[in-house]
Amino acid sequence: MHLLELAGICKTYRLGNTEIRALDNISLSIGEGEFVAITGPSGSGKSTLMHIMGCVDTPTSGKQFFRGRDVSGLGSGAVSGLRLRQFGFVFQQFYLLGSLTAYENVELPMIEAGVGRRERKRRVQELLEAVGMSARAKHRPGQLSGGEQQRVAIARALSNNPSVIFADEPTGELDSAAGRKVLDLLMDVNRRYGKTLVIVSHDPQVTSVAGRVIRLLDGRLSPDVR
């Protein structure tokens, strides 16, 4: 059984009288523990594809499955629960809450999932140590470098022990040295914890180390895939 599976996924938008097809008949599957990179030119549909796989967006047509379960017709509450507990997200812009400390940012998804205080404390401390940020736990995002903020974001993505980590251009706002450290950390998450890792990226560092590369062109799968 595949962990993630898409069958005939299409996504269209209307811009005035014009229909824009962001994804065109995408069928693919991703296995447990895989490290997959999604790449392609700007506007090719990379982020749209990731958002549909992560149940952030819904397709116009087609089916999507998680561990064999058809999630296409689930209600909003069930989809939110799936996203909260099974998927972790890392974004280019970090999206840490500026009013919260690093500790509190990592803790927040656990509060939303109803995890008890004692267990939250244990897991936050463990995760911040794992990403090398335990000494900065009381610092707010504005007191952290870009690379440090992304490390906190990775810890936050892991907070509810998800099955899949989705990362959208996670090195895009970082210099090459900081970007390499973040990539190494994500690879460690994939190897040490066995998390399925799906990264959308233009960064050749990412595509060179991924186990599989999915290339998109004009919303379609490119034949240039390994």
Q: What labels would you give this structure?
A:
10 strands; Rossmann fold; globular; 7 helices; 226 residues; 6-stranded mixed β-sheet; alpha/beta; 4-stranded antiparallel β-sheet
Low-confidence stretches: none
Strand coverage percent: 25-35%
What characteristic shape results from the CA principal axes?
Answer: globular
Q: What is the CATH-assigned architecture of the domain at 33-45 and 75-215?
A: 3-Layer(aba) Sandwich
The termini sit apart by 21 Å
Radius of gyration: 18 Å
Strand order across the largest sheet: 6-7-8-3-9-10
Average residue pLDDT: 93
- Helical residue percent? 25-40%
Describe the protein's architecture and organization:
It is a single chain. This protein is of the alpha/beta class. Helices cover 35% and strands 27% of the residues. The chain has a six-stranded mixed β-sheet with strand order 6-7-8-3-9-10, with helices on both faces. Strands 2-1-4-5 form a four-stranded antiparallel β-sheet. Strand 1 and strand 2 form a beta hairpin. The chain is globular. It starts with a strand and ends in a 5-residue tail after the last strand.
